[in-house]
Structures are given as structure tokens and as C-alpha cells.
Specification:
Blueprint lengths: L1 H17 L6 H12 L5 H8 L3 H13 L3 E5 L7 E5 L3 H20 L4 H15 L1
Antiparallel strand pairs: 1-2
Helix pairs in contact: 1-5, 3-4
Length: 128
């Protein structure tokens, strides 16, 4: 059970760092996943994030209002909207990555490099 608490603490620490960005955790998660999957349709992104499409729709509406992402119609199916980041989102994503690096460094402080490498390899294998 301790690993879940660790993950929660890491998320909380990242949120503390990211507070000044003016985004909720759900919003920055959408941006981060979209950065890896630009052009995905809303339903596909909802599946990746494991959220209900209606919930994702509300988050996307807010991000679109802030001009951080845009919906574009699918070229052959007018019922489907494809999602893309805007130019305004890219500096924000860079900042989020910097804050992620800071948070990771804090979490790994005091752990020798070879143990860090082993831990990161194990986590990558688990994720795969």
C-alpha cells in the first residue's frame, strides 16, 4: 500500500510546484496526454485517460476557452472531432516538464545513481 501513498505524494508535490500555472490536475493531464497523441479523437483520449467522455468534454471546453487546444473536424466523418494543441500550450508544456523534473529530482534525492537507474528501469518495465 505504501507505493500508492508515494504516488499520491509525488502528485501532490507536483501540484504544489504547478499551482502558479492556473491549471487543474485534470487539465494538465489532458495536455500531457494530448502532447503525446495529437490528432486523437475525443473518445480515444477519454479511453487513454480512463475518464468518461462527458467529463473529458468539460475539461476540453475549458482548455479550448483558454486557447490551449483546439477541436478540428475529422476529414471524412463530421461527427468526430480531433484534438490538437495550440501554440499557447507549448510553453506551458515545457514548464510542466521542468516542474516534473524538479519533482522527480526531489523524490530521488539521496538515492545513489545506480539504484535510481534500476528503479527507473523497473518502473518503465511495469508501465510497459
Amino acid at each position: 500500500m505504501g507505493h500508492w501513498r508515494s504516488a499520491r505524494r509525488l502528485r501532490r508535490r507536483f501540484e504544489q510546484h504547478a499551482r502558479g500555472l492556473g491549471l487543474t490536475r485534470s487539465q494538465w493531464q489532458v495536455l500531457a496526454f494530448l502532447a503525446q497523441n495529437e490528432g486523437i479523437h475525443q473518445g480515444g483520449l477519454a479511453d487513454l485517460l480512463d475518464v468518461e467522455p462527458i467529463t473529458l468534454g468539460r475539461i476540453i471546453d475549458k482548455l479550448e476557452d483558454r486557447r490551449l487546444l483546439e477541436r478540428r473536424q475529422h476529414p471524412s466523418d463530421r461527427r468526430i472531432w480531433l484534438l490538437y494543441l495550440t501554440e499557447l500550450a507549448h510553453p506551458l508544456l515545457l514548464k510542466m516538464r521542468e516542474l516534473g523534473d524538479i519533482t522527480r529530482s526531489e523524490a530521488l534525492a539521496g538515492i545513489p545513481n545506480e539504484e535510481r537507474d534500476a528503479l527507473l528501469q523497473a518502473l518503465t518495465a511495469m508501465k510497459s
